[in-house]
Amino acid sequence: MYIMNEAIKLIDFINASPTAYHAIETTGRMLEDAGYSYIPEGDASAFGDGGKHYTVRNGSSIIAFHGKGDGFTVVASHSDTPTFRVKSSSVSSPYTRLNVEKYGGSILYSWLDRPLSVAGRVAVRTDEGIRTVNVDLKRDYAVIPSVAIHMNRSVNDGYKFNPATDMLPLSGLGGTGVLDSVAEALGVSADKIVSEDLYLYNRDGGRLFGAASELILSPRLDNLGCAYASLRAFIDAEETDQVSVLAIFDNEEVGSATKQGAASTFLRDTLYKIAGSDARYYSMLDNSYMVSADNAHAGHPNHPELSDAVGCSVLGGGVVVKYNASQRYTTDAVSDGIFRTVADRIGASVQSYYNRADMPGGSTLGSISNTVVSIPTIDIGLPQLAMHSASEICAVSDVNAMISVLTELYSTSIRRTRDGFDLLS
After folding, report:
1. Phi, psi of 337 (to 5 degrees)
2. Which tens digit of pLDDT belongs to each residue from 75-134?
3. Domains of the chain by range and CATH?
């Protein structure tokens, strides 16, 4: 029998988080419910007091931390997902269509013929200046219609979708534009909206499926599955003599090279303020460890030939450790040894993933973040199918395994020795 409770909570977390802005807002609420308080990045004096705090950069990245000690235990994931950014103008004649552009690398056909909505954030003009506010239309607002097979008879033989023509969502018959709908949802006049960051999202909420309801079908599993699991572990773990750190970055799907991405100074700035001085910062880094948690490809049941013959992960097989000779993943013998030792303590299943040697995979935030904060780091993830589809698949048991391993990791003190690391629980 699978433990369904965390899977249901994960689905609730994803359904409440249609964009990166909402994911960070949802994370902040959960942290506050657990006793954490928000502090702005500029309040440097509060970072090192050992209390339960979190800070936010640009509304879409968050770092939470607690405890005092001689090192950092960091788990990092990302808040964004492949989708479509909505441009402010609509296309009308005779239908009303949203004008959109790709964000990240979506499986384009997976977005066709399903209910879509619009969410994000807007800047609203006030008497004092502007205020940013998250918005979600929370209704079936648009659909990207397929071309009938009678008009595209070769569609099943392979078709290259053009984002500028094939992927424009139908949103009405000459009705109001998207900003009018956003203004209505916020209860303000449209002329109060100065600017906006709006995105499409799949309205089909997450659900369990399978003979024993052992599988999850949901939008945005990559990477809100890891964001949720690391958040739960961070909140539930035992205190140690290290500083526990939770980081969720935006913009991984477009390279992380933004002021709030993993390539930014956000993590370094936060860790430095916790340490309080150059000497203390570099000393703490020497006893630090980081997990980059981003989902991994499971072997496809219909296409096993697409996976490495040996290093292939499966749904239900446990947490995936990812390796790559070109350092797209940052795992090495040291970081892997630490992680597997922690997992063995609680009997958690760990599996390995390698890309096929002739099929290079995508990169993630671990190696990118390591160029700014250089500490032993491992790349792990939940095994999943249909990565970057509008709906993705993972296993209930793997979510539970991820939470358990990361909870044990946060509850472990990692101490560097001359020839390795001591792991003290």
Report:
1. -60, -40
2. 999 999 999 999 977 777 789 999 999 999 999 999 999 999 999 999 999 999 999 999
3. 5-81+219-424 (3.40.630.10), 83-202 (2.30.250.10)
Rounded distance, CA 323 to CA 308, Å?
Answer: 12
Terminal C-alpha separation, the chain: 30
Given this model, what pLDDT does residue 224 score? 98
Alpha-carbon distance 125 to 142, whole Å? Answer: 27
Rounded Cα gap, residues 214 and 395, in angstroms: 6
Distance CA(355)–CA(259), nearest Å, equals 30
Question: How many C-beta atoms surround the C-beta of residue 5 within 10 A?
Answer: 10
**Spatial distance between the Cα atoms of 322 and 143, rounded to a whole number of angstroms:** 36
Average pLDDT rounded to a whole number, residues 322-351: 94
Would the pTM of this model clear 0.90, i.e. be above it? yes
Check residue 313 and report its DSSP letter.
B
Please answer whether residues 293 and 406 qualify as being in contact, where contact means their C-beta atoms are separated by less than 8 angstroms: yes
Lowest mean pLDDT among 27-31, 174-178, 184-188, 310-314: 174-178
Task: Determine the length of the chain.
Answer: 425
Q: Are 229 and 75 in contact (CB under 8 A)?
A: no
Helix (H) or strand (E) holding 280: helix 278-285
Contact between residue 89 and residue 304 where contact means Cβ atoms under 8 Å apart: no
